[in-house]
Predict the structure.
Amino acid sequence: MNVPLSAYLAEIKQPLKRLVGILAKDFPYVSILSTDSTGMRYSVRKRAIDTRQSDWCERGSVIRVFDGRQYLEYSFNELDQGSLEDTESLADTIRERFRKSSAVGGRLPFGVPELPQISEQPLSETWQGSVEVLPEPVPAEQIIGRLSRLKDRAFRLSEHLVEAEARLEHMRVSKLFVSATRELEQSYIWAQGYLIAVVRRDEATREMYASYSGLKGLELIEEMEAGIEDTMNIAEQLLDAARIEPGEYEVILSPNVAGLLAHESFGHGVETDMFVKNRAKAEEYLGKAVASPMVNLRDGALAAEQTGTYRFDDEGVLGADTLVIEKGIFKTGISDLLSALRLGTPPTGNGKRESFERKAYARMTNTFFTGGTDSLEEMIASIDRGYLLEKFLSGMEDPKNWGIQGQILYAREIRDGKLTGKLVSPLLMFGYVPEVLGSVSMVSREVEHSGSGMCGKGYKDFVKNSLGGPYIKTKMRLG
Amino acid sequence: MIQQLQQLLSSIADIDAWRITDRRIQGQEMFFVRRDVEMQRSKDVRRTFLTVYRDFQEDGKKYRGSVAVQIHPTYSSEDIRALIEQSLDSARYVRNQHYPLVEPGATIAEMPQSSFAARSLEEWLGPLAETIYAQEEQAESRINSAELFLNRMDIRIVNSLGLDVSYPSFSGYVELIVEDGGKVEEDGKGGRKAGGPDGAVELYRELRFSEFEPELLAAEVRDQLRYCGDRSVAASTPHLKRFPVLLTGDPVPDFFEYYLTRSEAQSVYSGISTAKVGESIQGKGVTGDRLSLSLEPFLKNSPASAPVDVDGFALKRTQIIDAGRLERYWGPVRFCHYLEVPPTGAVGNVAVTPGSKALEELRRGAHLEVVYFSDFVTEPLTGDFGGEIRLAYYTDSKGKRRPVTGGSVSGNVRDVQTQMYFSRETQSRARFQGPLSVLLPEISVSGAVST
């Protein structure tokens, strides 16, 4: 079913176009991004249920202008009927805001670099995503009921379960971008679900999670229902998990952990606003080998259908499918519009904001290693002493020094070409990006994507995106 | 907006209780690359959240269902009415044990006025930026980029019992990246090669504050510049296997999060925590320092300071752990009601009493002092902690101290809590006041190079 467009955005479109026209008399470039994104989050635990609007909900606007030298932005969300009818008055308020900002900047002993003006090709597009089951009309009773049954099943499956949570979140993202030459509108739905289990035996407490996501509606719950037994089975196994002996190992990264590697190594590392700041080591490797010839890495709103997908970004640039690494060679970075202007490169549709309240940065969308020709069985058989890293908890980039850190929930031991059935948990994986990617020696065929998490720029400005890959064999330090 | 909402709520049947939290936010932002202002942003936004409650009984038990929604300023009356009615319908299926809302009438402490209240937000950006950049002059390392955010929030909490509380709050945030030319490490052992495009290294830091305290801000920036210089000449962390580790600065508040979760009413109610009031929260046979931890509504320079919690519950200083003994559980009205203990409210700041030893004493003997991690994580549920080292100081058995980078530390709070020591020297950070350093007995240290 097609995702409906926002009635609110349709209502304000003409006044916003008038506003752009009025401000364009004072500023060489003016654009407005307006959002109306809504959704719910349902969480069912052993003894508590939580139902609330998703934290990703937003409704507001951000105006960007170019004053001939620099770009200024103003975010607001109180746009009453009077403002819509009297756009001249609203324009006065906004002009006054920008005048104050310019005055502050002008008084300070800092430089204001002359930036080029944004040049856009005329474009008018409307895009509606589609899902099997639109979540909004479905009564809470049905959703809470299904999540409650999942939670109850979890308790039947484990005698050591202390707490379980079944969580579902769905969002309808609606955005409108208006400038002198562009009028873009989109509406699409993503959903994500979590199964979380806390098990305890004696003094040992372990937590297991499984996540599900996609450009999907309530059909996602079926995937959660299908995954509950595996989740509880691993939760029980984690109670017997040992600590890893720190050292360098041959490892196989699951699609989940390979995605983390893609994200933290040549995801953050090639966000071109980092190039502008001279913060990315990758910049000196453009056109050079950075990985084994088996490694191909893509990013793009159109590169996969997951939670990083959209038709246009938050700066009115169409989403793309960018080949970042081709056969081990670093081909191109991923770019927001202003960084592309500074660098003289084409924007890649990666300008994303946490919400209308925040600045746009170069951000990842759907980032993943592409598939190879090996099988997981062949990869396991090729390792004498190593680990299959299954599931990550978190990661952190280090674009300038090209370090990578990943917190891994658990890994499976491999000895003499076979899985021993033993788990280690938790563990850290870390290494130097070119060494880790340069050591990739086998890549499996099937690629899996996961978009249930969120990504920060440093520790802030969180956005949705997805990551993924096939199984990948390499060497890493574990601790 | 609130008045309009109250009128609407009073006209809707079946609503048993409600709470409105309204935040008006004005913000000024400035983005620097080197010493250039790349962009300036400002904002005027309003975030209004409504929680509606519906009471019901099943099998003789009382339940209180709730649904929380955001009421955008551009919603029409019809939009809001429809949203409330839909939320009320959904609340019938949210089967939570009944709990009360916060009653009005409690004495509410006055929010100390921030120095930022004296001028408009725009006027503070200059002094903040100048304070930060002035520190470059005496340092070899330099500032790569900085992002400044300064917000004023006017918060009002109203509920259907007549509670009506409001207070202002200021929040400053700086993301600071410093860099140093450094040198490319050539240790010949396959160790990491420090340095970016030009052999440089960088360090990332977040600074949070609620007051204009130029000396504190300057000291933080100077420390970061000095640390970055040390990172630029750091050797690879050796593989120390099990070794004493001193956590200093940023990782310390994260380390103590474990005890906050263990003593939280919600964790106890859900069964995640088994901590018992009156018992040692550090286990048996403590030979190191005993933990004393309190919740502080007002911590100087902390953006988390507030006179009330999100429910509007009046906050006051509360001792949670005293000399290693759990004194009481803490949490909002709902979960404390479930445990039948007096509520403390969800306080945003934590204070930990300094320890028995001076930092100089803690630094005696071979140890690894970690001051920067890529991302130090303590899992509050399991007590597992660890992170990759961005900068540490390795002191060998001969007392020689040198900066190192790479490798990782990992351990579990339960394994170290009887033998850990806190420094007498303190630090104040957003949401935390307490020891500058914590010495952990031998934990796993994985080196940056193969052995």
Residues 128-238 of chain A form a domain with the PmbA/TldD fold fold (CATH 3.30.2290.10). The first strand of chain A starts at residue 29 and ends at 45.
